[in-house]
Each structure stands twice: as structure tokens, then as C-alpha cells.
Write a structure and sequence with these properties.
This protein has a single domain (85-320), classed as Metallo-beta-lactamase, Chain A. Helix content is 27%, strand content 19%. The chain has nine helices and 13 strands. The protein has helices at 25-40, 64-67, 125-134, 152-155, 158-164, 178-186, 238-249, 267-279, 293-303; strands spanning 86-92, 106-111, 117-119, 144-146, 169-173, 190-194, 198-201, 204-206, 219-223, 226-231, 253-259, 284-288, 315-317. Strand 2 and strand 3 form a beta hairpin.
Length: 322
């Protein structure tokens, strides 16, 4: 799937022949007014000019807050049993299972929640499906797809998955291009555009849109051992993300995994980030994708047996993390 369609190219241009000099002024004015009112009639009165982009069709897209009332993130019911939960890394640029293909990008499947969730879709949909088949992951079991951010190494496989299973709900960011969201709907999937934190299903949440230059959402799962946080690339900063997850649910941080975006980061800065993880009480860490080899090495040194080595084909059973 393309992440963005070219803008413009279909703009309508109205031209007219030279006006008859003998035409009376009043009919001329009325004609101009009719043309003007006819052009304006297609635009909803509440839609301002800045919201309509060249080449795009006006859509009745409802804000998430209107469709889904704000929920209480501090639930009283028991959290999700960690022993029921597993995370299968389908797509990653780090090697783990030799049967699987590696490529720059990230995707993982979360089982054991009320809904089966595919978090990100990697770069290449066909490679994603081949890896899924080798891991006994079937597109038909997916209920929800969450896209962390707009970059192609996290959204590139989406169209291929939707061709296999279109009756899913896809959580994107409100800031995603209008055309991207419309393409998802054309497959028959439901699109939820996220701005603020939102509950996806019991005990599973999106952090909401975080970031300045690159917006991103992360997945947060509330278990009886603490929070599991899964990041795509952590462009807004991995420490910021886990701090916001903790503040959102007021629960201890158990396991943080995914892309930490530290591949070009100096060693001393990574060591500071590890200290922040320890300060925040993160018990297990599993950097992958864009985290870089230096960060993976330093996290492994710091966390020892509580370091989770992640690559394409890793299957993480929380019941085994004692």
C-alpha cells in the first residue's frame, strides 16, 4: 500500500468564452452568483478550507472522541493474566529463527487478549505472509491492526494483510493522510483515527498520538505483572513513551519491547536511557528493529537474564518470564 498518494492532478478548471459585450449587467451578476453558489454547495458548511486537500474527496470522518466516549483507564476489574499472553515477532531486521526472512521493519502478533492484535505490518507484505505461515500465524485470526506510525517499514504490509482478512479494525493516527485512511476503508476494514489515548479492548490501550516531528502511538497491555509496552520506532523518545504509559495507567512497568530508535545514538546517551529504565522500574527489556547493536549489547549487559533477545521469529511467552 502506498503511504501517500500524490496531491492534485484532478482539479477542475472552469473556463468561459469571452462575454458578449451587449449582455446586461444584472443577468451577468446573477450568473456569476449562481456559479459561485453551485461551486460552494458541495462543501459542508462546518468544513473549513484548510481541511480540504487537493485531489482528495471530502469524507464524513468522525472524530474518535465523538465515536468512542472517553473511558476510565484505571479499571477495577482484575488485569489480564500474563500467563495467557504471547507475543510473536513476525517481521524484524534482526535474525532469530533461521527459517524466517529478515528485512528492515517490524511487526508482531499479540495473542491472549480479548482480541488478537497485529502491531505494525513490516515493509513487504509477501515476506510478512511467508513469515506468518512458518510461524503458524493466520491472517484470519487477526481482529485488530495497530499502526504505530506512517513510515513504510511499519505500514508496507498492510494492503497484503487486508486482502487476506478485511473484516478488521485498523487503528491509525489522526495525522495519517486522508487518502491512506480511505484506501483502508476501500478494503472493507473499519478505521479508527487516534489522537488521545484510547482503550482498544479490555486491558489493551493506545498511548495516543505522541510526538512533534514524527507522531507515533505505542501499545500498552495491562497484565497482573505490570504493563507491557510495545513500540514501533519510539521516534518521540523511548523514555517519554514509557513514562506516558505509566502515567496513563498508574501501574508498574513490566516489559518494554520494540524499536527504541537508538541505532545512531552515542553510547553514553544509551547508558543514560538504561538508567531511566531502571529508575522507572522496567523489569524486562527487549530492544529490536531500529534499536541498534550497541543498544542491544548495553541492555543485555544491564538486564542480564531479564534481557529478551528479539528478532524475526521470536515468540515470547510471558509465563516463562519469571
Amino acid at each position: 500500500m502506498r503511504t501517500r498518494k500524490p496531491g492534485g492532478g484532478n482539479d477542475m478548471v472552469i473556463t468561459s468564452a469571452p462575454m458578449n459585450r451587449k449582455m446586461k449587467p444584472i443577468p451577468c451578476i446573477l450568473l456569476v452568483l449562481c456559479i459561485f453558489m453551485g461551486c460552494m454547495g458541495d462543501v459542508p458548511p462546518e468544513m473549513n478550507e484548510a481541511e480540504i486537500q487537493d485531489g482528495e474527496t471530502v469524507s464524513q470522518e468522525t472524530e474518535l472522541s465523538e465515536q468512542y466516549p472517553e473511558c476510565d483507564f484505571h479499571e477495577d476489574d482484575p488485569p489480564l493474566p500474563a500467563e495467557d499472553m504471547s507475543i510473536t515477532v513476525i517481521y524484524d531486521n534482526n535474525e532469530y529463527d533461521p527459517r524466517l526472512e529478515t528485512d528492515w521493519g517490524f511487526s508482531c502478533l499479540i495473542r491472549g487478549c480479548e482480541k488478537t492484535i497485529l502491531f505494525d505490518t513490516g515493509t513487504d507484505g509477501h515476506r510478512l505472509l511467508r513469515n506468518m505461515e512458518k510461524l503458524d500465524v493466520y491472517p484470519g485470526e487477526i481482529d485488530v491492526i495497530v499502526l504505530s506510525h506512517i513510515h513504510g517499514d511499519h505500514t508496507g504490509g498492510l494492503a497484503t494483510v487486508l486482502r487476506k482478512k478485511s473484516s478488521v479494525t485498523v487503528y491509525v493516527l489522526q495525522s495519517f493522510p486522508f487518502t491512506f485512511k480511505e484506501e483502508i476503508r476501500e478494503y472493507g476494514a473499519e478505521v479508527i483515527a487516534v489522537s488521545n489515548p484510547v482503550r482498544i479492548c479490555p486491558h489493551v490501550y493506545s498511548t495516543g498520538e505522541i510526538g512533534e516531528l514524527i507522531d507515533e502511538q505505542s501499545l500498552v497491555i495491562r497484565t497482573d505483572r505490570g504493563l507491557v509496552v510495545i513500540t514501533g520506532c519510539a521516534h518521540p523518545g523511548i523514555v517519554r513513551i514509557i513514562e506516558e504509559a505509566h502515567d496513563l495507567l498508574q501501574t508498574d512497568l513490566y516489559f518494554v519491547m520494540g524499536g527504541f530508535h537508538l541505532h545512531d545514538t552515542e553510547r553514553t546517551r544509551i547508558e543514560t536511557i538504561i538508567s531511566d529504565f531502571e529508575r522507572l522500574g522496567v523489569q524486562y527489556a527487549g530492544p529490536c528493529h531500529c534499536s541498534g547493536n550497541t543498544a542491544r549489547e548495553l541492555f543485555e549487559n544491564a538486564y542480564g537474564q531479564h534481557y529478551i533477545s528479539i528478532g524475526a521469529g521470536t515468540v515470547i511467552y510471558l509465563r516463562e518470564m519469571e
